[in-house]
Amino acid sequence: MPNKEFNGKLMVYNTISRQKEEFQPIHGNKVFMYVCGPTVYDHCHVGHARSYVAFDMIRRYLEHKGYTVVYVQNFTDVDDKIITRAKEMGEDPLVLSKKFIESYFEDMDKLNVRRANIHPKVSEHIPEIIEMVGTLIEKGSAYEINGSVYFSIDNAKDKVGKLSHQSVDDLMAGARVEIDESKRNPLDFALWKKAKPGEIFWESPWGKGRPGWHIECSTMSMQYLDATLDIHGGGMDLVFPHHESEILQSESYSGKEFAKYWIHNGFITVNKEKMSKSLGNFFTVREILEKYEPEVLRFFLLYTHYRSPIDFSDKHLDEAKQSYGRIINTIQNLKDIVNDTKLTEGKRDGTKDKTFDENLKKIRKRFYDFMDDDFNTREALAAVFELTTFANELISKRDCVTRQTVEKVLSLYSEFGEILGLFQQHRKIGKSEKASTIISELTEMVVGAREEYRKKEDWVNADKIRDDLQRLGIHIEDSKSKPKVRRTT
User: Peptide bond preceding 241: is omega within 30 degrees of 0, i.e. cis?
Assistant: First the structure.
């Protein structure tokens, strides 16, 4: 149940208006939220994790405030990148995409990202996509040439640049548009693509082909939610052309506003440059989780406001690990106190109890005030650190506290943790986890010693360490920067 005591006004930054607006859903207590899912041709990278952790947090907070959230997140399982990758691997595109959908769920489950109510796939909605494309042609908003169908921006110029706040001239000058001499306008985009020889295809009124990228989200969001969404979300990189195109085709199709609130998360950067495969600064979630616990990565991603860029590095993750460890250790110490059979059940002095409750109330209010300010998890976590300082003061006075007092603090951690998707693994801390940490640290030490041998060109000892680790199921991949370590068992 929501905490009505702190159920204040929620202010949300809307990309389309470029300002914070009070959140007022169209459908009363029900929130229709659609977030663009991944194109599944590879394992998830940390940029995916940033987006889906952010929208998982937003969904959790909306539900905590008492809203019923109907959350839809798609999978693009038919796309140029998937077709290309499938050819390289000698696989059927849909078999390849299915494998990486499973990989996505494995990664997001570890990061405590709750599954959407519905996860539609493009390949399972071809008839609905064909129907929408056909209607857009009938309305004069699209045209067919040589088996492909394009959306005509000339018939929707009043909406062009609505989200990215750019004029048609700006878009023409700065956008990378699909080159096709058959298009009437360079900014026209494909709704249906004619199949090339050897490509996956479906039959349509315009011949064999497959959907363009943008049409899928419009079709599936309208099918499972409504013509007008409360929230449409995704990464900042989707504002143009993907979300701009969705607005054009959706509003031309329905005649209604497509989404009331547009929410976009910021980029992941490495040394201030956007993370990308082309720059070689690309990290998968799986690579990161070989070195860090999932909750540490989730904490790292939430410790920056969702709209701000995050500069990714081992140093920053190590700092997050240390900070998060402080919180977890405090929670564990509180639990140890609660389990102490000698702890009194009685109450302390009434004046002290009142001061204690007032301090907790202030911390709690601070947390909710920041969450109501455009889901500001950075400052909300500052309130959690304040709670941790307060809790450690209680722990230092262990002989003076009661079980009820400690349970109140633990309850507040649990309340905050449910919203943030954090502090939920502390029950697992024990000998096995400590042993795993020791093994990881010892492995780092051994790998470091091997690097010293390599610098001295002592290849005999360097190779011996590599081979010994290999037998233990630890594989080292040497690179120009530093070795990558992965477990093979």
Answer: yes
